[in-house]
Amino acid sequence: MVALAICPRLHAEGSCQDPQCGLNHVMLTCDPCGFMCASAAEMEEHTNSRIHQNKVKGTSIFFRCSVCGTRTIGRQGWNAHVHSRKHLQKTQQAGVDPNIIPEEPDQIPKHTYCVSCSVHIQDAYWDRHLKGEKHLEKERFAAFKVVLDETEKDKHGISVAADFDFGIVDLPEATNGKVLNGTISTSIPLSRIMLVDIKITSVTGATPARSTFRVGTLGACMIKVSQSLTFSVTFCQNYAGRCQDRLELVFEDTQLKTRFTIARPLFGIVGNKADHERLRPVAPYVPRKKSARQPELMVVEGIRPPALKAVPYVVPLPRAAIPGGLATTLSTGSPANILSRVQSVFLPPELNTQGYARHFKHLLWIEEFRMEKDLEIYDMTNANLTQHGNLYYLDVPGLAEKRPSVLVGDRILVQQRGAQEGHWFEGGVHVVRKEEVGLRFNASFRGWTRDQRYNVRFKLNRYPVRRQHQALDTAFSEERVLFPEGVHVPRGPYPKQADVRLRVINPLIATNPPQLQAVISIVKQAPGAAPFVIFGPPGTGKTITMVEAIKQVLRANPNARILACAPSNSAADLIAQRLSDLNTNELFRFYAPSRVKDMVPDSLLPYTHARPDGHFSVPPMARMMRFKVIVTTCVSASVVSGIGIPRGHYSHIFVDEAGQATEPEAFIAIKTMANSNTNVILSGDPKQLGPIIRSDIACKLGLETSYIERLMKRDAYDVRRGYGITVVKLVKNFRSHNTILKFPNERFYEGELEQCGDKKTINAFLGSSYLPNKDFPIVFHGLCGKDDREASSPSFFNIDEVLQVKSYVEHLRADRRFRTTDNDIGVITPYNAQCRKIRTALRGVADSVKVGSVEEFQGQERPVIIISTVRSSTEFVEYDLRHTLGFVANPRRFNVSVTRAKALLIVIGDPSVLSLDPLWRSFLNYIHNNRGWTGSPITWDPNAPVDEAGGYDRQIREAAKLDMNDFARRMEQLTLAGVEATEDGGNVDRPWRDVE
Q: How many of the other CB atoms lie within 10 Å of CB of 506?
């Protein structure tokens, strides 16, 4: 296999002079691009890439450096130039910032500049470019803008004095209607121009729609120089949100018998002006420039915190550095090329026991490479350090929101401004506060003053990745755990409830057959059985089932030892809290030493162990071996093998919320501690959110597929055939009202879920004033808002939706009939910026309402859930669905979001945007047809079948084009209207007039 690997030096340098190199040196070269490929398949992949297609089309974007006079091609070429030695020297001599703004050169030899597309086209490809669909689209839009700009100008002596920006209007005034006046006048005394029509564009366009603007009817009026004509426009809307339209005034010159139009834009916002002002962007959005980094040539190691030595590990942790060849591959070429190359060179041909470790180790490296790159966006320049004793404190914007995430034990690099290039000092993170971190450097760190400024880089904490590599390197590779088949499953009937006497600890389990069956099957499993799966859809009690199974295993076998894991500390805390009827000699909750005590539930502190300095640790080995249950996160589960507990000590390994962990994370406990007798039990829901993966390539190669999801795709885990033997699907939902449950139940769970929630809880809001349909506790509040971003944050927020969330929370809190506390309400929104804005709006109103992302709410529930979907872009002509909806349209995110509510679900969003996605369109149809709709009205037929293939974004764009073309056509017709043909074309033979 090694002989097939392509020599990385060949990729990087174009040749290899090493006679001992045994790697492949056969490369194919793409002549237009100069790109080297290792195979015909890779070459085919490259020729389909955007880079190659642009090159073939002759498309290039040129930049010119005003300091050096150098011309570069593309953003990568520019980045390389501004970091070149020549550029740095010249800018230093000129006394300017090396990160200058590039100029676009006017003329490039053998190229023509396309104004519409803002690119230079090789002359040989110019004719082809002019016929391209993207160019034609931009040309059509440019032509529309020219016509629109022309119609908004006063002309033929007619002046329309009117500003119809209604600004921000509060709801009572908007409901009654706010009126603005305009005047029409003429400056030509003897003109005979008449106003013949005045109308709203959206009502009369190619795709007519109802408008919230109304214009008074004037009839035909002659415009006289001696008096102005006054007219009015009314903005009337009984729901919050934004509206825009266009007013068209059609005039006729009765002498020339021609018509012309003067247009004025209409705009209005229904909302609270003070709140809008308070929440508006703090600064215009300017994307962070992600330029090429200078290499770290010399890093002076910092002083690490004592927390890193709090646990007495005896097993060394491997470095597991990214192989050079893989790093080179990930840095070179298009994503499609990289994906193809990784598959053909680095991964095994198929995923099996022999290639399992190699497969996942490379996926981990690919993900680590992406995470390192993504951290670059948080690089800081001109940062200030504050000294207190031997610690230096650094303010980190976004730290409270984990952007970036920094923990005790992490590393941060700093470099004095003006210091030697590539020379950095590493600071070990000793303290993490809300907005600052405390660093400790090597004694050679000198020169600090209050005025000194630093460049800052955040470094990835590699300990979690190294723990996973350590586990993958172990010898455990049993087929019955990695790739269970029918031969690993016992034949015969599964253990029936009637045949097993089980004294249930949690009485709720006794009345729930699927839960009881799962517990019995786990207790009765023979040692070394295939993994057992508790498939738990939302609100079906999978964690309760797992906890009962743990207790019953201990009761049935006093010698049993259990390692229970979950992907997050919150999920692990929930397990430990439900096992807290065990005493402190039976249950141990391990926390990483970097964990702060304030973040640990008080009820669990007796089950922990801490050193005199306050850092969490482990008790002596003898006591560790005596614990019946150890609860930890998946990554921290490495502690038991790391301190020397022997493989096989734990009879059972439980992994809760297994769908949220990557497979290597879930296998830290399994591969380091399991032997041939260890039983593995997973609980989770593959239909809900999986692990968060940053690398698209790692996603495509399977890292986003959790261990439980992969198992559920195997024949041995068919829910019906494997029932009671390898899997049990829980079907009794104890969380939600049936109308809230119905849509996701039919969409994701084959309609098998049964409403079993407490009637008093799930019916709590029936009949409330919030419900358009008093018997249907779901509200969709249509709201046309505006996407905003601010400063350098790429995250979106929508002020209109923020204020609508606030309004609902205020009404819920003030309602004396349907009493609701802060803790009863949860607000889910997909963007971090929206979370921040909503928290700001609720400050002093309802401070304890939990506001968070979909990920933060997985596994949680609230009586009331409010979802703010944020996106409200109307630039459909230039936006595609991926950019417009982003990850709002992810089916798993949707499933988690709409299944958190017990009694009341409120969704706030722009229906014209959400309906582009077939899943959301179906859900909105469900709400509308059950009369749960309020706010901005529906704009499509809710009874029409939904096309699951989508394409609704294309329809919107086509309609927008139709409106543009219709407007341009109407303006052209008006210009020609009334012109009488006085001749029949015989003027061809007439003599030319002598103008002298």
A: 16
